[in-house]
Amino acid sequence: EDTDRRKFCFEYFIAKITVIEENKQDENYDLLQHNLKQLKEMRLLNTKQLNIVELPMPDAVVFDDQRLPASYANFYIANKSVIVPTYRCDKDDKALQIIQTCFPDREVVGIDSTDIIWGLGSFHCLSQQEPA
């Protein structure tokens, strides 16, 4: 992760999504499992548990021997849609379905981000949006 492990690529708190890695051999597996454990132990001010939605990691995207920060959580929320990066892997459809359940009133659109991620970010990073 090139951005000093900024949380938005791993945990998107607004949508209560946490990214998980199912592949125990992946270099991010231990960190993501640790983060998931911590989130499950956290409580809101009203003592309720967080509503955690688990989102898979895409397959590793590597360029010039560097693992790029590919993540479905690097999505952009627009007025009526959510633009989600996809990475030409079999987890894309599952990730889009999960994100759609988090935003039932918006159209979830997957756009191939394989070439964009070479710039070390995707739609959320590129948008530089400001809250209205």
List the helices and strands and how they pair.
Blueprint: E1 11-12, E2 17-20, H1 29-41, E3 53-56, E4 62-63, E5 66-67, E6 76-77, E7 81-86, H2 92-102, E8 107-112, H3 123-127
Parallel strand pairs: 2-3, 7-8
Antiparallel strand pairs: 1-2, 4-5, 6-7
Which segments are poorly predicted (pLDDT under 50) over 5 or more consecutive residues?
1-15
**What's the CATH topology label?**
L-arginine/glycine Amidinotransferase, Chain A
What is the first-to-last residue Cα distance? 29 Å
Q: Which band does the percent of strand residues land in?
A: 15-25%
**Order of strands across the main sheet:** 1-2-3
Total of helices: 3
The biggest beta sheet is recorded as:
3 strands, mixed
> Which bin fits the share of residues in helices?
10-25%
CATH superfamily: L-arginine/glycine Amidinotransferase, Chain A
Q: What is the overall pLDDT average?
A: 79
**Overall body shape:** globular
Q: Structural class, from secondary structure content?
A: alpha/beta
| Overall number of domains | 1
Top-tier CATH class: Alpha Beta
Number of strands: 8
Judging by the overall fold, what is the CATH architecture? 5-stranded Propeller
Radius of gyration: 15 Å
SSE ordering = EEHEEEEEHEH
Features:
132 residues; alpha/beta; L-arginine/glycine Amidinotransferase, Chain A; 3-stranded mixed β-sheet; 22% helix; 21% strand; globular; disordered N terminus
Concise synopsis of the structure shown:
The chain has 132 residues and is α/β, with parallel strands linked by helices.
What does this protein look like?
The protein is of the alpha/beta class and 132 residues long. It has one domain: L-arginine/glycine Amidinotransferase, Chain A, CATH 3.75.10.10. It is built from three helices and eight strands; from the N terminus they run E-E-H-E-E-E-E-E-H-E-H. A hairpin with a 2-residue loop joins strand 4 and strand 5. The longest helix is centred in the N-terminal third of the chain and has 13 residues.
